[in-house]
Amino acid sequence: KKKERKKEGREGGREGRKENSEGGLYVCMNTFLAFGREHVERHFRKTGQSVYMHLKRHVREKVRGASGGALPKRRNSKIFLDLDTDDDLNSDDYEYEDEAKLVIFPDHYEIALPNIEELPALVTIACDAVLSSKSPYRKQDPDTWENELPVSKYANNLTQLDNGVRIPPSGWKCARCDLRENLWLNLTDGSVLCGKWFFDSSGGNGHALEHYRDMGYPLAVKLGTITPDGADVYSFQEEEAVLDPHLAKHLAHFGIDMLHMHGTENGLQDNEIKPRVSEWEVIQESGMKLKPMYGPGYTGLKNLGNSCYLSSVMQAVFSIPEFQRAYVGNLPRIFDYSPLDPTQDFNTQMTKLGHGLLSGQYSKPPVKSELIEQVMKEEHKPQHNGISPRMFKAFVSKSHPEFSSNRQQDAQEFFLHLVNLVERNRIGSENPSDVFRFLVEERIQCCQTRKVRYTERVDYLMQLPVAMEAATNKDELIAYELTRREAEVNRRPLPELVRAKIPLSACLQAFSEPENVDDFWSSALQAKSAGVKTSRFASFPEYLVVQIKKFTFGLDWVPKKFDVSIDMPDLLDINHLRARGLQPGEEELPDISPPIVIPDDSKDRLMNQLIDPSDIDESSVMQLAEMGFPLEACRKAVYFTGNMGAEVAFNWIIVHMEEPDFAEPLTMPGYGGAASAGASVFGAAGLDNQPPEEIVAIITSMGFQRNQAIQALRATNHSLERALDWIFSHPEFEEDGDFVIEMENNGNANIISEAKPEGPRVKDGPGTYELFAFISHMGTSTMSGHYICHIKKEGRWVIYNDHKVCASERPPKDLGYMYFYRRIPS
Predict the structure, then answer these.
(1) Which residues does the annotated region (Disordered) include (predicted)?
(2) I want to staple 316 with a disulfide (CB 3.0 to 4.6 A). Which of 134, 254, 266, 773 is the partner?
(3) Which residues contact 696 (CB under 8 A, 6 or more apart)?
(4) Domain boundaries 147-262, corresponding CATH code
(5) Which residues line the annotated binding site for Zn(2+)?
(6) Catalytic annotation, residues
């Protein structure tokens, strides 16, 4: 039976664009979802849809001329699919031919396309619409698909001042601040100034743009991108990236010879003067002959444009057996029970990605041909070099303004975001994210009465502070800083970098040190007092994730990063951080909640601000965003401080920036009118009020029962923090029969177990661990730079740098940002 439905507007089924993979791609002409050859039969059995369009791209070596070279290029009318050519093949040596036909299941009856004579008009129209449709990602990532830059109208007659400015080959710094990255050379007066952080995902304070507004000089080139082939040129007047046909002459005016400039893959200058100890070179193991690795578990992920944070986290996560079993091990069952639109199902997309990484199908050593038959047919089957996680990224970042953008993100924030998604889409009784979960015991002591309170909270990673004051090479650091400043003043090459060496023991000591509790209210005094807090492990996880807190702020509040070396060991013992609970002689603080007091003069303003989020002061939001903070965090800061200005909102950010949901989108608990907003904010919610669903979801994602979360929120006036305290302090809580546990509308709902564990699920054990993976960051901010991952497999370290997977020769374990340890059984 042939489908005659006109589907001109649907593009979702063409996602993946795997027409040139072995077997091609089958597009369902009813749903317009696309499937590989190994999965189309499953879709047919599940849905009964019988009509598919089979798309395939053939790759052949070009016919050689008499002189041995390829014949002259000509327009290839045999290519009609919107598909990029294979990057691994030289387009001068190979030619492509696209093939399309209709296939009728289950008999696999084929109808060649086009076939106007035999097919009904509506079927022909639908086929033409599919064949001419553009990839949906060309709309999502317009910058990634830019074909050709326009020539600037200012290039031919650009004025260049004869002011004697000469640009050195290194040691660049913004003329108005201390930034050394994202620097732009104005081609009129030779000024070196920083750009905006959101222009190309690099940090900056916008001084290059300010200079243009002051002086009107239109063109600037980005330092570090200059090569003999060109450079990144931006026109402030035209407000876009442009081409400068006379760039070599314009650069020579300032003493820059394009023919002797070499840019690295990451856009940084790589010349003889640059020290060979920069973190970019050390972390990527530059200059070493790294042996490529192929096969199952050695598949890379192509960079979609600042997606390396996602790639690094997913490589580390799928090296864990529990995640491999939960998704790839359950592939047939997950695919069989996936919803009709599997692109919108988390477990299906996780399984698809995991299978791609672990199967080895997309990581094969390069060979010219595999079978003699292929040679006889003059057909070449290109080897796969990594996979493109477009569909996975589109789903997991859906509705998240930061992760859905093309900007660089924090790998630690994405890791917690992923854990949250795994928790919310649990399959069966086993939850793979349980291996990361542990309990933290927090001990708060009133400094005046010496009374204490013990509470527990759930966490998924250990945040380890950098103890800069404990550097073991302080004399070398002081000497290096003096030499560096002198070189800058005299415009000489910078000295070889000296990196602070920090003992891990000092960082662990800093983690266990008491810290002051801001705005502490003592229930013993019934008043505010000084308080201190210490944290210990109430349980040790099966897999310990350690984040080094390298990112901070300078005196000018510009985000910066500690470029330090920490001696992270292969074997880690943190048993001494085990919580001990209430000790003999300690007296507990009374279980009394502080009174809620809100000044009358600000009550109305706060009410109004929380009722209508559309009134958020966007100018304050942008001021904060330009400092490098995530956009959603800036919106929340301005919202929750009642539009009282960027300075007040900045203080809110500093207090809340370590929270797991810091960059999550703004949600309004209790929003829906003045009455509900007032109840939520001022604690006036009665027991008959339903708690905000957003807060209920947060608590249930930690492993607690839904009815338990609702009861705790009702008992604490919908306060998330106090509700968690209530849950831990009421272990005798019994399940109320009046509550109904609601099942989310999940595609795999029929294989989700109804049995839910009591309390947070933890896998406690000894606190001795072995390092098996670490993620490293290069750059000055989480909003810029590059991530790569090292994983220990089969007894040796392997480096995963986007799509490139190689055996590591010198893994930089001392420069990591996130470390993954597995427990050593006792």
Answers:
(1) 1-20
(2) 773
(3) 706, 709, 710, 713
(4) 3.30.40.10
(5) 174, 177, 194, 207
(6) 308, 786
